[in-house]
Amino acid sequence: MLRLTSSMINNTTLLHVNRNMRNLDTIIRTLETTKRVSRPSDNPLVASRALKFRAGVREAQQFQRNVEFGQAWMDVTESSFLSILDNQMQDIRRLLVAGASGTYNIENKATMIGQMRELIDHIGTLEMNQTYAGRYVFAGFRTDEPPVFTSPNERRFIITQHFNLTDVDRTASFQRLEPNAGVTPPVAHKVHVVRLAFRNLDMHDTDGNRTTDSNYIDNTQIYVPGFTVLMRSINDEDAYYPIADFCVEGRPILHLIVETGELAMSDNTAATFPREGIAVTYERTGFERGEINPAVYFTSREMIDEPPLIAEADRVYQITQYFSRVEGTPTTIGATLFYSFDLVFDAIYTDNNDPANLRPVLPPGASIDAGPPSAVLIPAEVFDRNRNVSVSYSVEIEFTDEATTLAEIDALKTDLRVQGVKLIRATLPGVEPLTPIPIDQAERNRSFDMHDQNMTIEAAAHNHVGVNSLGKNIFTANMFADFRRFFEFTDSLVISDEGELRRFFSENPPYYTEPVLSTNVDRQLINERAIANDALFTHFNNMLFLVDRHIDQITREHTQLGARKQRMDLLQARLESDEVTLERLTSQNEDTDMYRAIMLRVNAEAAFQASLRANSGIIQMTLANFIN
User: Fold this and answer.
1) Cα(1)–Cα(251) distance, integer angstroms
2) Separation CA 459–CA 262 (nearest Å)
3) Is residue 446 classed as helix, strand or coil in its secondary structure?
4) How many helices (H) and strands (E) does the chain have?
5) Is there a contact between 170 and 541 (Cβ–Cβ < 8 Å)?
């Protein structure tokens, strides 16, 4: 027989009361917090699922913020596209159609040209410089650089432009070759040209210093691999007539018209233009308002003066030399025909004396002799269709004192810049030899490369969408050059003043007098206006064709932007749906079922009150015994 003591009864009574109280407290807490669990130990399974659902909700919300940023960026971009396509470019096209119709006179066309000039300035300085949150939307990753300059500056760049066959234009050139431009009609030529983005390139004197003296025009720094570039003034009779035959170096000839920035070529050269295109490297200092920014448009290098201390350092340069097969010395090794060439420098880095993997970059099958004298053997089959090939190698240039250093650096850059000189390492005086220092300490020059400049956002897990459009694909360098040359040409078409013509005909042989004087003046003015009208008609038609091509390019970019915007809208709808789903699942997993909880609370309160009433007598007796 079990013996129950008062202590056992008291403990059992308190246990039941406390259990009902804890149950009631748990239910009340779920009502107060609206959550099924307050701590992981309450229900580990629910807690672990809650963490996953909450992380999913936060991820969906972050992706939505990314999408909202991308949509805002693309909305700003599209506003510029719509403005350019629907307003500026269509207005320019209407003006060109009107000017090419032959209905309007020279004065009317001059007004049209002024309107087009303002529209192009608006596209460049406003639309292409559009910003979002203080960042230029058309500048790729360099959002602090305006695609188009809004004020003059003296920045200095070495620029590399790439041209393909579609960039070769068949056009007309009008030149005034006589001192009395108002009397002698311009000479018209049908020419093939490639237009550089800029004109008035840098020229250098015999010491390598920049100059504006036209006597040094043949020392302009420009390089086109596989071609020989000759400098010409627009006043030269052969400016637009490069000889069709090869020059002594075995390369086709291009004429650079310095005043216009045009590369003129013969019909034969245009017919054999390389399929892979050409790369043109040149130097330009100083830019005007409305000119495109090389840092945003091209592979370029901004030249900045170097710190004097670092100028004393020894330098390791990477040098690229281009060789033409006709200049090499043929030699046969086994059954293979090679051509031998001398390198500019001796003691170059090879595998055996390479402290930092500065190995030569050679064509397949080529070998190099570090010398001295240094030479390279190149198989005959690796030369391209223009019989050219390139070789890159590294060499250390030692300097003694600061003055000598600066002079030799300038000479090196002047002599070899067109062959791809690139500083890759430097060592300070007194430092252990070949100890490299950071390139940004070795020189302050900055390099820019517009490849792979697409900005993307992660709109979903492992799902990236591009948001930006590049200015170089909209207001292209070709478009800028085409309009620049068009305006330069129209500015050069000046009709002679009647009073000046009277003075000229009366003061120069054959000394005309009235009424012959008036007849000759009228005939000259009519002739000049006819020539100018014909020239304007030709250029308006040519420009209309080019504008249609540029509109097509802008439309393609706009279409790509529209496709990305549509994808972004779909992603936003998906993310909003995912967030709703995850929040519902989170609620189902965590939130209190209020109706059930209220019912349970009523039951728990009743149970708790019943336990108190049932055991009140025992508790009272126990309390009385405790007091006694």
Assistant:
1) 122
2) 45
3) strand
4) 13, 23
5) no
Pair of tokens at residue 277 = 């295109």
CA–CA distance, 577 with 523 (Å, rounded to integer)? 79
What values do phi and psi take at 475, rounded to 5? -90, 75
For residue 394, give the 3-state DSSP assignment.
strand
Query: Token pair of 432, please?
Result: 């252990």
What is the tens place of the pLDDT at every residue in 116-142? 999 999 999 999 999 998 899 999 888
Query: What is the C-alpha end-to-end distance of the chain, expressed in Å?
Result: 31
51-79 b/e with 16+ CB inside 10 Å = b?
Answer: eebeebbebbeebbebbeebbebbeebbe
- 487-541 confidence digits (pLDDT tens): 988 887 777 788 888 888 888 777 788 888 888 888 888 887 887 888 888 889 9
Tell me what pLDDT residue 590 has: 74
Write the single-letter amino acid at 257.
Answer: I
Tallying the residues shown for the chain, one arrives at 628
Query: Could you please report the per-residue DSSP string of 323-352?
Result: EEGGGSEEEEETTEEEEEEE-SSSS---ST
Q: What is the pTM of this model?
A: 0.70
At residue 562, what is the residue type? G
User: Which DSSP category does 260 fall into?
Assistant: T
For residues 440 and 204, which has the higher predicted lDDT (pLDDT)? 204
Helix (H) or strand (E) holding 229: strand 228-232
Cα 137 to Cα 76, 88, 159, 175, 341: the distances in Å are: 8, 19, 23, 41, 48
8 A C-beta contact, residue 114 and residue 91 = no
